[in-house]
From TrEMBL:
In the N-terminal section; belongs to the LpxK family. Belongs to the UPF0434 family. It comes from the Bacteria. The lineage of its organism: Bacteria, Pseudomonadati, Pseudomonadota, Betaproteobacteria, Candidatus Accumulibacter. PANTHER family: PROTEIN PREY, MITOCHONDRIAL, ZGC:162634. InterPro entries: Trm112-like. Pfam families: Trm112p. This is UPF0434 protein AW11_03871. HAMAP family: UPF0434. SUPFAM superfamilies: Trm112p-like. Coiled coil: none annotated. One of its GO terms (cellular component) is cytosol. Signal peptide: none annotated.
Length: 58
C-alpha cells in the first residue's frame, strides 16, 4: 500500500484516519469498528464490503 495513498484515504462513513493492516490486507477504522478490504492493491471503500471488527481486533 502506497504511503501517499494512506495519507489521503479516510473512512467513507466518519472521515476518520485509517490504519493499514498488511497481514490481513485491510484498512481499519477504529471509531466505526470496520475493516475495509484491500484487493490487488485497491482499497474497497464501500460500507457493504466492510466487515465489523471483533472486540479483540478493535
Amino acid at each position: 500500500m502506497d504511503a501517499r495513498l494512506l495519507d489521503i484515504l479516510v473512512c467513507p462513513i466518519c472521515k476518520a484516519n485509517l490504519e493499514y493492516r498488511k497481514a490481513q490486507s485491510e484498512l481499519v477504522c477504529k471509531p466505526c469498528r470496520l475493516a475495509f478490504p484491500v484487493r490487488d492493491g485497491i482499497p474497497i471503500m464501500l460500507q457493504d464490503e466492510a466487515r465489523p471488527l471483533t472486540t479483540d481486533e478493535a
